[in-house]
């Protein structure tokens, strides 16, 4: 019997992947922040860790709206 692996969908590319392959983004009252632990409370979304195309501002607008540019820059800095 194999263990259940939760799947989530990337907000940028819309691919379903195991939760461990994605990075959680958190929507807070202060704005959008990166949640590498995946355990902070709040409204979250996921983005692919290994795909720089998913970190583009245009693709993040679905989730971050006006904060997409800042989020895109934060993701690039996080993975740099």
From TrEMBL:
This is 50S ribosomal protein L7. It comes from Thermus filiformis. The keyword Translocase does not apply. InterPro entries: YlxR (IPR037465), YlxR-like_sf (IPR035931), YlxR_dom (IPR007393). SUPFAM superfamilies: YlxR-like (SSF64376). It comes from the Bacteria. Keywords: Ribonucleoprotein, Ribosomal protein. Residues 8-66 form the YlxR domain. One of its GO terms (cellular component) is ribosome.
């Amino acid at each position: 019997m194999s263990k259940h692996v939760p799947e989530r969908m990337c907000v940028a590319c819309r691919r379903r992947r195991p939760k461990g392959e994605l990075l959680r983004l958190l929507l807070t009252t202060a704005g959008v922040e990166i949640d590498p632990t995946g355990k902070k409370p709040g409204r979250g979304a996921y983005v692919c860790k290994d795909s720089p195309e998913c970190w583009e501002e245009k693709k993040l607008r679905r989730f971050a709206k006006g904060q997409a540019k800042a989020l895109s820059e934060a993701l690039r800095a996080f993975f740099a």
